[in-house]
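Record type: monomer structure entry
Structure origin: computed from sequence
Chain ID: A
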Amino acid sequence: MFSQQDQELMQLALDLAKRGRFTTSPNPSVGCVLVKNGQIIGQGFHFKAGEPHAEVMALRQAGEQAKHATAYVTLEPCSHYGRTPPCAKGLIEAGVSKVIAAMLDPNPQVAGRGLQMLQDAGIETSVGLLQEKAENLNKGFLYRMRTGLPFVQLKLAISLDGRTAMASGESKWITGELARSDVQQARAKASAVLSTSATVIADDPSLNVRWQQLPAKIKQEYAIEDLRQPIRIIVDFQHKILPSHQLFRTNSPVWLVSDKVRDLSNYPDFCQHIQLKIAENQTALPALMQELANRQINSLWVECGATFAGALIEQNLVNELIVYIAPKLLGDQARGLCKLPHLHQLADAPQWRLQSVEQIGSDLKTIYHRT
């Protein structure tokens, strides 16, 4: 159905889309390539929410040449008015003759309507080219649209014997510098970083993206003012987080979560409180996930201790385990990976499927999905 050239052009659109991976949230990363008579006449990608979409950028570059062109887009063109006009309408007005989309947009405001709008205007459409790659590019956005929950990645750094810290709590640093740089990239891609008051009190982290630790190639591609800092979300039911914590020395959003009213008059303006409403027969963590999805959090990068990690796993709220394994042995007195107090039989142990293994410096990065 699709030619080799079609695949190459869609791959180019996907490569363009990746350029928005640190900046587009809560919007998806999208790329577009316009081709006419075998020549690329326009290309673009969506850079930031509220700014022009990929199709608009490509059409601007193509100008009048866009008439009778073919558009390759990594996600179905939108059909609704949001912060910007519908991209499907722009393609119609430009006079393109064909649109090839990698996948349908599961956003209920689109969900096939974009392609239908194009078809109704007499434009030929196709969908499904390099769909798996397109899905992987926007896992968080797609998961939230399909389930009403954010895509949760639980990051763990362990020794060869599965320990996360010495008995004293000392854990800096189990992994090497390159692995820590990789974590900074993952934070930068996430909509938000989730942690707990216990972790903040123990380690006093900033939980922001440290620009200086990103690879030189990324720093050359983005200006620091364009790099979107993830929202830092702290579960703090006992209201233990204080304005003196390191979190508040970096000017990027902090959300403190509890189920009680909280006075933030002594906290910086970028700090806000989420008073979690927990429905009858519901526990706090599922309620939190629903609330965060309602606030357009696509993907959550979780850095926490063994208790919270275990709770997320037990309640089946983790989509990916990201485990960095350092070539060290910490011994049986060191702290364990996660607490699963309700697990008593091996047959009930949560099962995970290995997705990838990558060596980063002297460490291994392994990614698992829940089976």
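Annotation 1: The mean pLDDT is 91.
Annotation 2: Residues 126 and 207 are 42 Å apart (CA to CA).
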